[in-house]
Structure formats: structure tokens, C-alpha cells
Write a structure and sequence with these properties.
The structure holds two protein chains of two kinds. Chain A is an alpha+beta fold. Chain A has four helices and nine strands; from the N terminus they run αβααββββββββα. Chain B is built from six helices and ten strands, in the order H-H-H-E-H-E-H-E-E-E-E-E-E-E-E-H. In chain B, the strands form two sheets. Chain B has a six-stranded antiparallel sheet. A four-stranded antiparallel sheet of chain B has the order 1-3-4-5, with no helix packed on it. Classes of the chains: A alpha+beta, B alpha+beta. At the A-B interface, strand 2, strand 3 and helix 4 of A face strand 3, strand 4, strand 5 and helix 6 of B.
Chain lengths: 274, 341
Amino acid sequence: MQNRTRGILIAVAVVAVVGVLALAGIPTVGEAPTYEIPRTLDGHPELDGIWQAFNTANWDIQDHPARQGPVLALGAAFSVPAGLGVVEGNEIPYQPWAVPRKKENAEQWVKLDPEIKCYMPGVPRATYMPYPFQIVQTPSHILIAYEFAGANRTVYMDSKPESPVDTWMGHSIGRWEGDTLVVDVTSFNDQTWFDRAGNFHSEALHVTERYTRAGPDTLQYEATIEDPKVFTRPWKISMPLYRRLEKNAQLFEYKCVEFVEELMYGHLRKQAGK
Amino acid sequence: MKIRTCAAVGVGVALGAAALGCRAPSAARTAAAAKTGSAPPRTSWGAPDLRGVWTGSNLTPLERPEEFAGREFLTEAETAAFEERAARNRVDAPPRSGDPGTYNQIWFDPASKVVPTGRTSLIVDPPDGRLPFTPEGRSHARRTAARYGVGPRDSWVDLDTGERCLTDGLPLPYWTGYNNNFQIFQTRNYVVIVAEMFRDRRIISLDGRPQGNVPQWLGNSRGRWEGETLVVETANFADRGHYWWAAAWRASRPTLRMAERFTRADGETIDYQFTMEDPAMFTRPWTAAFPLTTDQASRGVTVGRLYEYACHEGNYSLVNVLAGARARDNAAEEGAREGSK
């Protein structure tokens, strides 16, 4: 009898504590945060906003120590910070032939990285470059507008058009799985990289992205990478994305073509005296 | 500096012309809307719905040609002749000897129809349908036109901003030789216009935020709803007037201000107009108007969604133009050396 009373009291106390925690929005063990996901009029999570990754994955998607940058004159300002990788298990399952190619890419980074030439960065790299991107969500089409190189993607939600040709930013078909936006991205060319460390893919790349609201100002981002020409199995990256909270935050232009013309065309300028 | 909107221009200038350019739907379009009964759609939150893939492309020139001086509208016979002449000109002809030529016609996507209003110019104000250039603006436009296809080609900055894959400038949605579809995305807080050409993009905020101080090539656009019309004011244009532009009047200049009005007229039409004001280039503000349509086929241009335009990524043309000019320099130098022997 006494034990039972004590048991009831404990149960009431636990319910009360859990209730208070829930009211305070503090997650309890084994529960997701209890914040209310803002929803669009058609009931899906609202993903609208200006988002940015805050990590060093654009330097190297794998774990990496700090090291000196490639431009002597820029010293500490453009050297490479250490960082945690974003690859699950930290291993990228390259096929044997691809291992030396990745190494060569890394060694020839400044010459070969498409980022340096202001080329569209591809997916998933666009997500974790050190620039914001904006999601503009409508029921039928979701625009993902990236600041870097003014790259855009349209995610088709209620139609599945075919892609007639390979692209830099891929061809994106989206669907909702519960509260997660899942985007199948295909029809890539083989010109983009994953990072400045020379991680690469072929035109057989297939990226499956998952965007899930994790809090009022965070998204959880996951991308599964498949490319049977380059990797032995699918592999996965994941990271949080953060909302740009500055008052009047806005996506600006970064028309970087202007900044690479001397680099790319300088040898074709008229020589004095000719 | 506040830009006078269409209504204000109408008070100050020829009331009839401004009213026609600003409001009056064409008889043909009214008839079409009446026939299909397609009312302007609204978003689920009650705003006029601007979403869709649009083109403004048409054959009508921005400025009124000499032959139509003093006349605002084409007759039916003139319209037919105008469209027929354009179709006739759309054939591949071999370039003159020594001229590498340009794209084959298959690359271009010109409209086959004049603007549905039947106007003789897209410019509705001033009433003469001509750009009100200052002497400096006129000289800049003439020099731009004279260089096109001629050179010099000493450096990439001798080519225009479009040839460099940067942009052809505002207004978007304006059209050029190809890639003339635009997609409008719309939420409560933003209207975003994405152009296929150069993947140019305008993110127009509707939340009343201040203009700010960050110059951009396409300026900084702020929008608001005035009844059924989206009014967009754009300022903070970057200082890029020293570059060559395909159309001098579209160049980014810090002195430029733009006002635009987007009014969804029916199921497949947005009535669009823009007003440009720039005391360095123009003696007065001027306004042009043309409808955008989701019925690309009715204008004879490419139907369908937007595709990725990797202009800079595939800009072999710029490299070849400069390499050709350097080869010519070398040949001239060689020739001079031979001659002096």
C-alpha cells in the first residue's frame, strides 16, 4: 500500500517535471525538441530563409589540421583553419583508380579547383561554401538561390521534368517525407568538386539531400553521395545550417566573373608596342 | 530621389498616352480574357499571384522608328508587314568575306509578334517614344553602338558586359537574342525574378526594410503592393558605367533609379512597365510598357521551363575573340618587320 502510494507520487512528480520541461521547451531524454515547427499554408515545414553553414568543409570535407595557405603574401589571413569533417565515419570510399586523382587535385588545387574560376559550385558544395544561400519556398517550386557565383536551383515539387542535358547545379526533384524535404539531384557534369581538397566525382553523381528543421534557426542537412564510377559505395555527409539572424540580412550579388578575368584572360591582353 | 510613378507622369505629361501605357488592356487581350473567363489568380494568402514562367519578348522596338513618327499605334496592315519583314530576315546568310559571322539563326529566339497593344514603340512616355538622352548619354550610346562587332579588342573590358557573361543589366524582364524566359517565385515576404539569361536574379523584399547602402550591379530592389499592383523601386546601382554594355541605357550607374509596376491582368498576363530616371543619361524620367505572358507560343518564342545557362563556364567565345585579336597583332608586327627589311 505504502509502496504503491510512493509509486504514484513519483509518477505524478515525473509527469510534473516533464511537463515543466516541455513547457520550457527544454528537450527531455529521448525526445525531440518540442518547439513548434512553423508551417506553410499547405502544412509542410517552412524552410524559407537565408541560411549558411559555419564549418570548414569547403576547405576539406574530411577531418583536417591547420596548414599554411597557398598565397605567401596573405599569410595568416588566408591560411587553412583546422576543422572537423562532415563525412560520416570520415572515410570517402574512392575506387582504387580515383585515389591518385584526388591526391593530384589536392596538389594542383589552385590550378584545378573550379571555385577559383568562379564556376558554379555544384551540389552539395554550394551548401557549405562560406556564403549564405536563400530558400524561397512555394508549393510547386522551391528556389535555392546561392550567393556564390549567383548560382540557382529550382526544386520541382509537383512535376518531374526530364533534364535534357548535364548541368553544373544538377537537376532537382523534391518530395516531402514527413517533415523532411528530400531532394534527388541528378544530371550533373563532372566539372565540380566537393571541396578545396580536391574531392571529386563523375557525371554519374547522384545526390540525395535531406533538409529537416531542427529548431527555430537551424536546419539539419544531410546528403547521400552515390557515384558508381568513382566510389565503391554510397557515403553520407551531414551538418547543421544556421539562419542569418542579422536585422535586414539579405543575399547579395557575388558576380565573381569580374574578379577572375585577369587570372583567366590576362595572357590574352594586347602587349605594349604591338 | 523619388521616382515618379506612371500616374504622376500622366498628370504632368500627355494624359492620353500615359493612360494608354499604364492601364488600358488591349482590346484583343480583353476579348481573350472574356472568352476564357480567366480572372487574375491570387495566392493562398490573398495577394495577386505573379508566379510562373514568363516572357516579355516581342518585336516592337523600344524607341519609335522614324517611319512612325507622330503615331502611337500600328495599323493592322503595318503590323502584318512588320511581322512578315521580321520573319523574312530570319534566315541564315553567309557572312561577308573575312567576317567570321555570328551564330546561326537556330541559336536565336526572336519573337514573331509585335507587342499586343500595337504600339509603335515600347516607350510610352515621353510622347515621341524616344529615349530622352542628355548629350552625354547620346554620345555614350552612339559610341557603344559603333564599337559593336568592330572593336577594339585589346582586353576583355573592350567586350560588353554580356559578352563577358556578367549581365546585360536591368530591367529584368527585358529580352535580348535568346534565353528570354523568366521565372517569378513569390512568398509573403519576397518576389524573386530569375532570368535564364546569365541566371540573373532579383530578390525583391516586400517587408518595408530600408534601401541600405550596398551597391550592386542590378541595384537593390524594394517592393510593395499598391492594390493589385506590385510596385518595385530600385536604387544603389553599382558604378559600372565605365564598362561597355550591349545597350548603353541598361548600364549600372550610381545615378540610376528605377520604378516598376507589375499588375496581373488575367490568367496569362502581367502588365509591366518601368520608369528610368538618371540625370547623367536622360533629360527626364521615361517610361516603357509591355505585357509579360506565360503563353510563350503566342509570341513565337521558346516554350517551357528555365534551363541552366552556364555562360562564363563555357565562354570560349571571349577567349577566341581575344586570341584572334592577338594573332592579328602578331601578324601586323611581322608584316611591319618584313616591310622594313
